[in-house]
Every structure is written in structure tokens, then in C-alpha cells.
Amino acid sequence: MNVDFFSAFVGIVFGIMSFSLFLQWNRKQQPVPSHEHIHWNPLIERRGLGDLITRLNHITITVSDVGKSLSFYVDILGLQQIRRPNFDRHGAWLTMGNVELHLIKGIPVVPSACNLQVGHLALETSNIDVVLEKLRALNIDVYQNLSLTNAHKMIEKNKPLIIQYFFNDPDGYYIELCNCEVLIEFAFSQKLFSKNIEYDEGIHNHSIFTVVQGCLHWMKNIEKDSKKELNYLLKNTIRTNEVDETKFSNILKRREIYGDLIQSCSDEDIREALLQSNNFIPLTIKILNEKYGHRKVYQPYPFMKNGKIICPKPFLIE
Hints:
Layout lengths: L4 H25 L4 H4 L20 E6 L2 H11 L3 E3 L8 E5 L4 E6 L14 E5 L3 H10 L5 E3 L5 H5 L8 E5 L5 E5 L2 H8 L20 H12 L5 H10 L9 H8 L14 H10 L4 H12 L3 E3 L4 E3 L2 E3 L4 E3 L1
Parallel strand pairs: 1-4, 5-8
Antiparallel strand pairs: 2-3, 3-4, 6-7, 6-10, 7-8, 9-12, 10-11
Helix pairs in contact: 7-8, 8-11, 10-11
């Protein structure tokens, strides 16, 4: 019996390709809901209870008046009320489509800060301009976040700017509406690398022997006492006579980051730390952290309310 091995091989390959095409076609016929696959990366390890948890079921907030809050979330935000079993407390259940919102009568836990760096519920929209018009028509005070990210530029040149509007529910809880699909694409894109990031501390030249030596001792002989460690590093680092202006300029960019250490530091202290560290950024930050780490200044970003720019006051956390 003659066996045509080439024909058999071609038949097997054709069969595998046909089966693969069938599987792809079958997946398209049964699409998975977007929230099932957009926010998961199966290649990343899930730790702890990760393999046992399937999804977020609900978020609960305590409200002073269930009826008033229910009216707001249904009539203003458009959530749907769903059936709620009997409990020993008043409340209501709503659905946002992919997660539930549970209201419980009680004492509201509302952020007291007069800025937008607060806990909030974020809802996504693909018609951000229409949303703003409707909110204004409903006489809702709207705050616009003026802290912009460059995520849209890093994906494609024609991506829309990320816009975030905030407003309050009857108890003062913050609600955000944004065109968040741009952020989702940025967070899960496989095409982005660190070279796309505009911020850079300018660490390019590590040729100075004493600085490298100090860094090696820092990594290998870490002491529990941070102050002793810092003194040891400074002792083994030669002070420079000139500040690297590029590195100084890049460090100042960190002042735009809410709660960053550099928001607490004066220009003079940053320059002095650069001189002490021989312009070596990790040691510079360690020097500044020793001086300011126990009491940090937080400068919230400005936001716009009813056409006016509001500049929140900085505050101190010790």
C-alpha cells in the first residue's frame, strides 16, 4: 500500500487551519461583554484570592435620605432601581449595568476636602459634551478637572483629550463623568513602552566612580537606621560645585504631582541636595526626604466651577 506522506501532511495542516478558523468564527458569534475582557490581562499573575474572585459585585454608600438619593441616581444619572430583599435597615439597590450601587440609610462619609483629589464614583460616557449640557440644564454645579494627562497622545495622535467632570450627589459624594475609554486603552495597550513617557529625571551618566560606589554600598549594605545610611552615603560621595540644570528642571516637574515630596521643597533646598549628591538623583531624593518626609505639603490641582478657575489652598500632613 503506497502512502503519500506529503498529501497526508497537507491534509493535516489544512484540517488544523480549518479548525482554528472555526474557533475564531465561533468566538465572534458569541462576543464576551466588554467588561469581561477589557480590564483583565490573563498573562499577569493573579495573587492572593485572585483565582477565587470573579468580579466586583457592588459598591455601598451610606446616605442621609434614601428617597432623595434614589431620585438623584435614577432621575439624574439614569441608573435603574432593582429588587432589594428585606433587611433590618432602609435602603435601595441600583444597577449601573456592570456593577451595582447599594444605598443604605445612615451617616454619610463624605470627603471634607475642597478639591478633586477625593474618593469618587467614575462613570464612562462617549458623549462628554452632551453630558455637560444636560447637567447644566438640570442645574447641577459641575467641576472640571484641569489636571491633564498625556495618555491620549501616547496612544495615537488623533485620540481625543481626556475630559473629567465632577459633581456631587445630595449628600456630597463626588461623581465623575469622563471619556474613560481612552484611559482604558492606555492602561492595557501592549504598544506602549517607557520611552513614550515624557517625564525624565535625566539619569544618563553614571560614570563618576564615587557616586557608583556610594550607590553599590546603598544597595548592598542597607541599614535599618535611615539617617545613618544617609550619612554613610554622603561621606562616600564627593560634593560637586555645579548643579546639573537639566536634572534640576526635571525634578521641578514633580511639583505638578499631587502629594509628591518635591511640593514641600524649596528651589534652594533642591539645589543644595543636588550639590551634596553630586547630581545623583536617587541620593538627592533621599536627602530631601530626610528633611521633608515627616511633614509634606499637598498642593491640589486647580479646577473649574461655573466658568471660574478655583485654586485650592495647599495643606500640610505631618
